[in-house]
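ARCHIVE CARD
Drawer: 12
Card no.: 0347
Subject: one protein chain, sequence and derived structure
Cross-reference: see card 0346
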Amino acid sequence: MHLLPLLEKLYPLNRTLASDGTDEALRIVGEHMPASSNYTIETYVPGTPVWTWTVPERYVVHEAYLEAEDGIRVLDFADNPLHIVSYSLPIDKLLSWDELEPHLYTNEKRPWATPWIFKYYQRDWGFCLPKDRFDQLDRNLKYHAVIDSEFRTGAEEGFRVSTGVLTSGPLTPNPSGELLISSHICHPMQANDDLAGTVTAIEVANRLVENPLPSGSMNVRFWFGPETVGTIAYLAHHEDLIPQMKAGIFVEMTGNRNPIAWHHSRQHTHLIDRITHHVFQNTDHIEREFAAAPANDERVINGPGVNVPCISINRWPYEEYHTSDDNPDIIHEDMLQGAADVIEEIVRIYATNYIPKRKFRGPVFLSGHGLWVDWQDNWELNRAIEKIMMRFEGEHSIFDIAHEVSLDYWVVRDYVEKFRAKGFVEALPIPSEGLNA
């Protein structure tokens, strides 16, 4: 599917932690997720404790503007949600310049652009405008500051996140576990941060339905919602899922024309790291440490008490970050699709990988069981057969066996699957939480 039209549809919505714009964005995401994903939107009651955090209130802005006493309107929320600091407190006052200036925000490096500023937890109010416009304001005038906002705590219109889960079979929970793909959706009028990650994740989901993972593969869970507190709220409400999660991929900022970057998990050498390194080895890319800038929800997924090994993928840095210049003009379809390409391959290898454990003694009678590979048909696999069988002791995953015998993962997996079909090996699931197997 083409991703830019979907991104452009989501872009104008005023997406904050909890708002009507966020609700609409989650609804639209659901329209584009596969029907088989059982896409679900969950609502949490504001004020509910979630670990050391609290579920935030819904933020509603009825009207907001800044107007000079001579009647000239300086800025209006109706023109662009970035014009007010997200989660600004209500105000309706006539202010001197000295009273107003501490509440005005600009971007020195991009004086023509409006910055995005948020104060979710340090309750204050403020307006954002281009530095060029700020410099033109008359310091001798008074200014009428109006923000008609409210913070709603009703359970029926609370804080929302969504998930979709792709399965390769009917079993729930899946004995093979789950792979989590996460992307946030809460930044108003920001295209690359992070609608790009959202639409990239949707593309991966649809590709996995068009070309399904084989039976017995891990579930792949897709999560969408507000950054940080959204992931915390979801996991706090679903602690039973954490032991099922074998690894995570956080996706963001994938649409700008920069080389793609990946950040290690906190474990650094976990299976998800090794597979990602393998997938990226022939791609122009940047490799970074865990939670290097920009750090986001991998700090929750791979953080204290959760510790699900989680990498992140992005095209950071980019100059338009957190300004009105982060708009669809800087997004490129081929960059979105290129990110989906590498994420899809990581998912396909990780979710189909398992540890083969032998159920035979002695060398297998290969030709007698249809397992012989003629050297004239595949010399490399023929020479590796003994090495592969020697690694059926329940200690090596298929990916690691392929790496050790210098063969393609899919060649080795297809061959091991023939042993499994004969009943000569059983598939052990990949261990959870930080193990290297």
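Annotation on reverse: The radius of gyration is 25 Å. The CA atoms of residues 46 and 56 lie 5 Å apart.
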